[in-house]
Design brief:
The complex is a heterodimer of chains A (about 260) and B (about 675). Helix content of chain A is about 45%, strand content about 10%. With about 260 residues, chain A is of the alpha/beta class. In chain A, α1 packs parallel to α11 (about 250-255) and α5 crosses α6. Chain B folds into five domains: about 5-130, Rossmann fold (3-Layer(aba) Sandwich); about 140-225 and about 315-330 and about 500-570, FAD/NAD(P)-binding domain; about 250-305, no CATH class; about 335-500, FAD/NAD(P)-binding domain (3-Layer(bba) Sandwich), CATH 3.50.50.60; about 580-645, 2-Layer Sandwich (Alpha-Beta Plaits), CATH 3.30.70.3270. In chain B, about 30% of the residues lie in helices and about 25% in strands. In chain B, α5 (about 110-130) packs antiparallel against α18 (about 650-660), α6 crosses α7 and α12 (about 410-420) runs parallel beside α13 (about 440-450). The two termini of chain B are about 20 Å apart. The chains are: A alpha/beta (about 260), B alpha/beta (about 675). The interface between A and B is small, with 10 and 13 residues.
């Protein structure tokens, strides 16, 4: 099984582990992530806040490239996934944006959202299946109590993301079970970490992140997992640091016994 | 050749604004057989009807076509009018140019063309119509009420009052329904049990009323006036006629760990139980899922302590069969399953309860004896947050319900008020989208909660409830103040949306009664026939038709009873003459029609026919019982040899309509 892969800027700098572990884990699970040859920064959520097409074009180029190969486009970073999936939705459903983008890029044949956009977790759930992930695990993380941290970008707006129930998600808990660990439920798992306010109001970001970490810790979590580099930064740099935060792919690679990568 | 009159209705502007009615009348005048056409603003008015009658008599019309609204609306009206003028009822055809034309089209030219086509089809059909005469069928003077809640109880009492026999079938071990679980009733705050239990006793003591509790309707056959119903009486493992309801068995049963359904699992009961003190019939029931004797043959304590000798471990389900003239659906409601709304931590914290659970926690006969205590640790809650519209008015159809559940605003005001009255030291918050209190003395009641009892009403929704360190951290928004709220609550009460009972769908299927997308029973007309189902002889009582409070339920229950009484007063009913009829000479005896008939109206007989050269042939041919046939037409489609025809809707007539449309 082969997918086109859009790593995104952060995964080349701060989030190297998120990327590297994902690739080795993929090989261990029997699928390949082929990096798009010339990808550009997705714009990290800001494109969605503007009523213009210029900021969406880099995502459309990535989507076009995947269409040419005829394979789904896989992303890993929550922000990249959010932007690319929503831009794809716009190209599919918003006739105005579709017309403008196609006119501007002179796309032939025109692009209308044909590419399937998948998050790495969706690949595990829908293409590989939790049972098969479980079967491939060599070092189950038995007894480890893990809190799933969803953040906001993966889940909302739910009608566009179609990722999981935004109020009561379960995909990360299912992932935790698949790698042999024990998921810990805590209420704030799908609250925003406040990461986007770090620069203008660090105090608020700190308060919000600490609240989440405390809630998870009280519920009995020994560590948190996330798919988002910004959440990871915020939950480690803007808290007392008492609760370790890991990328979910790190634990996946560890469980599959390919950690060294 | 028929002499046909065509009458085109404007329906005010309903039709005339989109369809050029004059053109329709004029164009249809050119159809073969049409001797008169006209258009008129309101064909259904007395003047309109008079015009039709005059023309029938003046021109000797043999067929009438009315281009108007749906036949469901006024076919009967026009048939009656023509009947008075001496025309057979079945020589009248309706072309529906409102619901199927003017209401759904915008372009006047297109709509006019379509109206002409629909009129043409009706004319083509009426050319082949033949006068039909309706027979009669007798009425069984006994009614069945499915569901023994307050709706079913009131309906049964009213029917019995008029002197007719009524059977109540209730699937629970006792009648009483949801109202038995409610503590106080709004807006008067009188005790629900005090007003309900006397009615339950009335039912039990009324000789005309027969209660089949712990029973379910299994099969319904027949038709209005002559329903044939199979009722399954589930095994209680207790002989109902012998049990005195003394309760000795329920005290001695060693299996104490059974979740008590009556208290919604907030406490436990024994494996043999009487749901509550005022149960009717007051008879014990053994829960086969928990009874040690039934599960592994070891115990028998209840049989030993029963002085009446009522325990019967070998009891089996039995089926009884009864005939009824009318059936009332009173299947009631349930709060929705809250597992879809776990952002409020319902499944995560025992201190997050549904409103019905809250009723039990406040009730003197409830698990806490009427003292409000937190289920988690038995302490008094000091801060209580009520969340309204949990699953009601929900945009996400997969999670909740699109409709307003109607009763939650009032019972939440009641809960909040009772909390403040009993425990003045509690802080009570109510989060709402809108407060909806139409009803006699309802808004005054809500205002009392706010003004006199100091309940904090906050416009806005709760986003999340997070259990942490024994508290429930409530995140919410105050929309009027435009700010985020964080409340540390001790208890959260969720006003869950209500939905029809799960059994309603199977009951509706058995009754061939229609339902809406939410599984509420559909009424025959939303305004003018609110307690009748479109299926003749089936009536609707209470929340199975839509969300209702107790006063409305009782009113509708009595209305349904009045309709039943009206039906049972008649000695015979006019049958629908549009029934299937086989042509015996064409019938090849294949049995296809018998297999598809949903009413069991078709049988086969061996019949003698005259063969060639004075011989006789015995052939197997279909026979239709016209009293049972409902005219659905399934057999006419299944018949390979074209022997089966539906009177009034013959294959020839349908084909003539199709030809007229395609012309």
């Amino acid at each position: 099984m082969k997918f086109q892969y859009f790593p995104g800027c952060t995964l080349k700098t701060k989030g190297v582990r998120l990327d590297a572990c994902a690739r080795t884990a993929a090989l261990a699970l029997g699928f390949t992530l082929e990096e798009l040859p010339e990808w550009q920064c997705c714009g990290a959520v800001y494109p969605m806040a503007r009523d213009e097409i210029a900021t969406r074009l880099s995502s459309v180029r990535a989507l076009m490239a995947a269409r040419e190969v005829g394979e789904p486009l896989v992303t890993l970073c929550s922000a990249c996934h959010h932007v690319i999936k929503r831009v794809n939705g716009d190209m599919k459903h918003d006739a105005d944006i579709r017309a403008k983008v196609n006119n501007y890029l002179k796309l032939d044949p025109p692009y209308a959202g044909e590419t399937e956009v998948l998050h790495y977790l969706e690949v595990l759930r829908d293409k590989i299946g939790w049972e098969n992930v479980k079967a491939a695990v060599k070092n189950p993380l038995t007894g480890v109590k893990i809190g799933a941290y969803y953040g906001c970008l993966l889940l909302r707006p739910s009608r566009e993301m179609c990722f999981d129930d935004p109020e009561n998600p379960s995909i990360l808990e299912d992932f935790i079970r698949a790698i042999g660990a024990e998921p810990v439920y805590y209420g704030l798992r799908n609250e925003c970490c406040g990461g986007y306010t770090t620069i203008e109001n660090r105090q608020y970001a700190h308060k919000q992140a600490q609240r989440i970490a405390d809630n998870a810790k009280t519920a009995g979590a020994e560590c948190l997992i996330t798919a988002c580099p910004l959440c990871l930064y915020n939950l480690t740099q803007n808290t007392d640091g008492g609760l370790p935060v890991r990328y979910f792919t790190e634990l996946l690679a560890q469980a599959l016994g390919v950690e060294e990568a | 050749m028929q002499k046909i009159g065509v009458f085109v209705c404007h329906c005010g502007t309903n039709i005339a604004a989109t369809v050029d009615v004059e053109t329709v009348a004029k164009t249809l005048g050119k159809e073969p057989g049409v001797v008169f056409t006209t258009d008129y603003p309101y064909m259904c008015s007395q003047t309109g009807q008079q015009m039709i009658q005059d023309k029938i008599q003046e021109l000797g019309l043999t067929g009438v076509v009315i281009c108007s609204c749906s036949p469901r609306m006024h076919e009967q009206t026009f048939r009656k009018a023509c009947h008075k003028a001496g025309l057979n009822d079945y020589m009248v055809e309706i072309a529906n140019i409102r619901e199927q034309c003017s209401w759904i089209h915008k372009d006047k030219q297109e709509a006019t063309e379509k109206a002409v086509i629909l009129g043409r089809a009706a004319i083509a059909k009426v050319q082949l119509n033949a006068p039909l005469t309706a027979g009669t069928s007798p009425v069984t003077k006994r009614a069945l009420v499915i569901g023994g809640g307050i709706a079913g109880i009131q309906t049964a009492l009213d029917i019995a009052e008029a002197g007719f026999e009524v059977d109540i079938v209730e699937k629970q071990p006792t009648i009483g329904g949801k109202m038995t679980q409610i503590d106080k009733t709004f807006p008067t705050l009188d005790c629900a049990a005090c007003i309900l239990t006397p009615k339950m006793v009335d039912c039990a003591q009324n000789e005309k009323i027969h209660i089949y509790a712990y029973s379910e309707v299994e099969q319904v056959g027949g038709f209005v006036g002559n329903f044939h119903v199979k009722i399954r009486r589930k095994a209680r493992f207790v002989n109902e006629d012998v049990c005195t309801g003394c309760g000795a068995c329920t005290e001695k049963c060693p299996q104490k760990k059974v979740p008590n359904a009556f208290n919604l699992g907030l406490d436990t009961r024994r494996a043999i139980y009487i749901p509550f003190a005022q149960a009717v019939p007051k008879v014990a029931t053994i829960d086969p899922d928990y009874c040690n004797m039934l599960k592994n043959g070891k115990c028998g304590v209840c049989a030993k302590v029963c002085t009446a000798g009522a325990i019967d471990y070998k009891q089996k389900d039995t089926t009884i069969e009864r005939e009824y003239g009318a059936i009332v659906a009173a299947t009631g409601f349930n709060p929705i399953d809250l597992s879809q709304f776990d952002e409020f931590a319902y499944s995560k914290s025992p201190d997050v309860v549904s409103s019905l659970e809250f009723e039990r926690l406040m009730n003197a006969a409830g698990p806490t004896g009427g003292t409000l205590l937190r289920p988690s640790d038995g302490t008094h809650p000091k801060t209580i947050v009520f969340v309204q519209c949990v699953g009601s008015r929900c945009e996400d159809a997969q999670k909740g319900k699109s409709y307003c559940s109607k009763i939650c605003c009032m019972y939440t005001a009641k809960h909040a008020m009772l909390c403040r009255e009993k425990y003045p030291d509690t802080d009570v918050y109510v989060f709402y989208i809108d407060v909806r209190t139409p009803g006699k003395n309802f808004d005054e009641f809500y205002r009392r909660a706010v003004e006199e009892y100091g309940v904090h009403y906050i416009k806005g929704m709760v986003g999340k409830v997070v259990p942490e360190n024994g508290k429930l951290k409530v995140q919410a928004s105050d929309l009027l103040d435009n700010r985020q709220l964080h409340i540390d609550a001790d208890m959260v009460v969720l006003a869950a949306a209500i939905e029809p009972d799960k059994s309603a769908r199977s009951v509706a299927t058995m009754l061939t009664a229609s339902m809406d997308t939410n599984d509420f029973f559909t009424e025959a007309h939303p305004k003018l026939r609110p307690v009748e189902s479109p299926t003749a002889g089936v009536f609707l009582s209470g929340t199975c038709q839509g969300p209702k409070d107790i006063p409305e339920t009782v009113a509708q229950a009595s209305a349904a009873a009045a309709k039943v009484i009206g039906l049972l007063c008649k000695d015979s009913l006019t049958c629908n003459p549009c029934v299937a009829e086989p042509n015996e000479l064409m019938c090849n005896g294949c049995s296809n029609c018998e297999k598809v008939c949903p009413y069991g109206a078709i049988t086969y007989i061996d019949k003698e026919f005259r063969g060639p050269n004075r011989t006789t042939l015995i052939r197997r041919v279909a026979q239709v019982n016209p009293a049972v046939c409902q005219g659905c037409g399934a057999c006419t489609v299944a018949c390979m040899s074209g022997a089966m025809d539906l009177k009034g809707f013959s294959n020839k007539q349908i084909m003539a309509e199709v030809d007229a449309i395609c012309r």
